[in-house]
Amino acid sequence: MIFRIGNLTNNYRIVTPTTILHDHRLRSFPMNSYLLVYAILHIIIIYYVVKCAYVCLKIRVFHWNLTCLIFSCSVQWFETMLGSLMILPYETGYWTLGDSNTTVQQGWTDDESGMVRVSSIYNVFFLGAFLKFHYILSMGMTGFTLAVERTFACYFLTDYEKKPRIYLVVILIASHQLISLISTILHFFLVLPNLVYMIILALIPNVLSSVIFAVTENYNQKVTKNIENFSNPNTYTLAARYQAKENVRCFAMIRKVIFAGIGMILVSCTSAIFIYFGILPDYATSINFLFEASLSLGPLLIGPTLIYSVTSWKNFKFFKLTLKISPDHKTTVTMVLPGRDVECQKETDQYFKQLNASWI
């Protein structure tokens, strides 16, 4: 939705990630059931966001830098939740924005007569819209940030696990937020000339992240194959083997998360197209709800995908029920796959050679 801020002679435009204003139908049955569903979905998301943020720190299965990135991206969802709470009273018509309290539905328009006129930008609504915009664009940058971190993990393959390199994650998080902030300002204040440029700017980091992931994953597969085949025993180290295996697990997890994110983007774009071209006007409230949900409720799909991609995270329980059962006699059976004993022997010999060399 595009607003014109100021008076007739001195004004400027801003765009917000909303499509409807003063929808009084949301205050009466049955349309107010949307708000109930919205609240329930937010409660579910809070559970998954808190669990994801807690479990990635409690059960650390990846490098500390990647763990910090996952934690940062998880808790940032509360930014859009706060923004949604600021916007909601204006969307439902409890609070009035501008001179009129009539229902306004608008997507993208270049017609100034169709823009909502507001005398001042100093309003809770615009602060909430800015927070939501910043969260949306930050999530669009997340894939690129993770791709850069995995590139460093492959570059420092031999000692990435042993050396924390905290400066890398500090630079990545600071750059992530700074670039997202600049992008939000460009979008929010309509510095870009039209919608096409805005879409291109939003797609650039996603395209770059896909390319970086493909190149990095291909490189990591070659390194892993060389390590597993003992093609160069002199460069074989436990740290390199561990980091290569971690990269494989990480790429598998991120691939699932990216597919989930693409699904949310498709829902958002489809609903935005319906609103922009006025398709199915009788279902405008439902389509608007779907559009808002796709922007704010992404963790509802991405959160479970992230958690269930890692076995130890999936099995973690917040509330544990302890049942005391008298232990019976247990027999442990160890199975060794054919050829595995030879591979283990190679690894053991190599470890002892490196240990012996370190003592000389």
TrEMBL record:
Signal peptide range in chain numbering: none
Compartment list: Membrane
GO cellular component terms given for this protein: membrane
Membrane topology designation: Multi-pass membrane protein
GO biological process terms on file: sensory perception of chemical stimulus
Residues that span the membrane, as ranges: 31-50, 62-88, 121-146, 166-189, 195-215, 257-277, 289-310
This protein's UniProt keywords: Membrane, Transmembrane, Transmembrane helix
Superkingdom, natural source: Eukaryota
Family the entry assigns: Belongs to the nematode receptor-like protein sre family.
Protein name: Protein CBR-SRE-44
The gene coding this protein: sre-44
